[in-house]
Amino acid sequence: MNNNKTVLITGASSGFGYEFSKIFAQNGYDLILVARSEDKLKALAGKLTKAHGISALVKPKDLFVANAPQELYDELKDENIQVDILINNAGFGNYGKFAENNLQDELNLVQLNVATVTHMTRLFVADMVARRSGKILNVASLAAFSPGPYLATYCASKAYVLFLTEAVAEEVSSFGVQVMALCPGVSATGFQATAKNEHSLIGGNVKALTMPAEEIVEIAYADFMADKVVCIPGTSNRVGNVLMRFIPRTLIRKGGKKLMYTKELGQK
Hints:
The chain is of the alpha/beta class. The chain has one domain: Rossmann fold (3-Layer(aba) Sandwich). The protein contains 9 helices and 9 strands. The strands form 2 sheets. The protein has a 7-stranded parallel β-sheet, sandwiched between helices. The chain has a two-stranded parallel sheet with strand order 7-8. It is globular, with a radius of gyration of 18 Å. The chain starts with 5 loop residues before the first strand and ends in an 8-residue tail after the last helix.
């Protein structure tokens, strides 16, 4: 690594992680790229180092494994690599009826979306507080602001990420450390295919609601560098989130159920 600041990005091989890797490289940051797919990471690292003259370290890790964050942290310590910015992007959704979904899939979601984000944040924020500098971005979701029938565990996990981020941001603000939650709405990242909800109304990439991943990350990067605590990309998403505060939660739940329902689920 050279004298550039270093950003660690989880889930770097696709979606938001891929776009974050690009935009940080374009702005002269060295990269630590983390995901399960070593081949994809190496291809991305090669592309970005050649295009921007930065350094990119590939760290293939399965963050579904409980001790993976500690293992990664210890490796970087042994290599004397300082992480100036952490992007907790890795996560996934699991669509379906909660009572019928595969239990291990639900537990894996909690491990990755909740436990891993908590573990990574805790490990790296302590060092940032000690040296009085650093930044962390946790990818939450617009879904964090309301319950999500048929995406129950996912929405709950993102609510956790949002509240954890806001609380930690307040705790560490006086130490020169910034923490921000990114709360995108419907995005073109492949999330719906992974979550298996692409046939629902909200998951079907409604053009009026969908934002490209690249656009979301550009907005997020600007807000992150402006030291914001919560970023909701898209005017319609921000307005909708404000209006939601005036709608009874009973109607929010029922409306969410209609938006997420597909005939494949069977009886409502």
